[in-house]
Each structure stands twice: as C-alpha cells, then as structure tokens.
C-alpha cells in the first residue's frame, strides 16, 4: 500500500500510487473511470449491493484511487442517503478522485448500462418474462448475486471489525435490522452516536489503534 508523508507518496514494490483527494485526472483517466463504472453497471445483476465488491476491487485494489478505510465510509454514507447505493457510491468515489468531473463520469458510467438495458427490455423483451427458461436462468443469477453480496460483507467486516466495540455495534445493528425490522435510517445515526461516545468521549482511540495494528 502507498503511504503519504509530507505530501510525497512512497510506494511498495509492484504497487501504484494512491490518488490524492480531488487530484486532477487526465481526460484518459476520466474516460477510464467512466469505462470502469460502465463495466460494473453492465455486468452486475442483482441491484446496488451486488456492485459494491466490484467497486471496491476496481478502485481500491486495482486502481488504488481510494483507500480501504475510505471505501468503507463511502459505502456507509451511500447507504444512509436517498437513492441507489451503487450510484451514490459511484458519485462519492468519482468526486473524491476528481471532483465534479469525476462525479459526472462515474455516475454516467454506472447509470447508462441500466438505462440502455431497461430501454431494450421495455421495447423488445417484455414478453420474455414468462419464459420458463428465462425464469430458471435468473434463479441461478440471484443465487450468484447472493454470494457476491456476502463476499462484500465479509471484506467490509475485515476492514472495520477490529476491536470489541465495533463487534458490539455491528451485532446490535444486525439484530435490530434482521430480528426487529429496524430501518437503516435509524441504525446508522445510532451507530454514529455510539462511535462518538466510545471513540471520542471515552477515549476509545487507543482500542481502535490497537485493532488496526493487529489487522496489519
């Protein structure tokens, strides 16, 4: 992973530099961002959550434009805002990387495949939905998408569940939503309040730092 010290970026062998927030990208890089999000939007079936592991792999692991910690924050914010989580996340990643141009390139890339696909379905394929073979194919697709969403949860968990307080809030949030049907709009601000209390007022920064050191 790249490390920034005094405004300079150092690299480990075989790894590219991480982009600084708001760094100006060339037209070629913006086109690459558009193409990456277009690919994610075009080949991901199952909704916004299925796109999250692909966004993480492309922009955290491959391009290294966003850090693992930042992508977790992006996903949390995108979940708490109105709209499709994948589109929200794309806009955040694009803006974080190249400000307004990046946000426009990312949102256009991830929205355009869905728009074109739905338009084609509306025009040509409406009668195909009753086809038994199409239904069987999509049953398999849904099973695969479930595995992708589970993988995204595991990867995010490895990044943020680094100490007992994080496990407590994650467990309580899961129980509230899965067991009692509590909305994410309530779970997210309550979780944020827990983080402020523990890591801020109670001096939990030490536990967080220890968890990060253990992770590394």
List the helices and strands and how they pair.
Blueprint: E1 3-5, E2 8-10, H1 27-43, H2 48-62, H3 68-80, H4 85-125, H5 132-160, H6 164-180, H7 184-201, H8 205-215
Antiparallel strand pairs: 1-2
- Main sheet summary: 2 strands, antiparallel
The helix/strand class is: mainly alpha
Unreliable segments of 5+ consecutive residues: 1-17, 208-216
The number of helical runs is 8
Strand content: under 5%
**Ends: how far apart?**
11 Å
Instruction: Enumerate the strands of the largest sheet in spatial order, edge to edge or round the barrel.
Output: 1-2
Order of helices and strands: EEHHHHHHHH
- Please provide the count of β strands: 2
Backbone CA Rg? 19 Å
Task: Summarize the structure in short.
This protein has 216 residues and is mainly α. Helix content is 75%, strand content 3%.
Write up what this structure looks like.
The chain is an all-alpha fold and 216 residues long. It has a domain at 3-128. Helices cover 75% and strands 3% of the residues. It is built from eight helices and two strands; from the N terminus they run ββαααααααα. It has a two-stranded antiparallel sheet. The model is unreliable at 1-17 and 208-216 (pLDDT under 50).
Main traits of this protein?
disordered C terminus; mainly alpha; 8 helices; 3% strand; disordered N terminus; two-stranded antiparallel ribbon
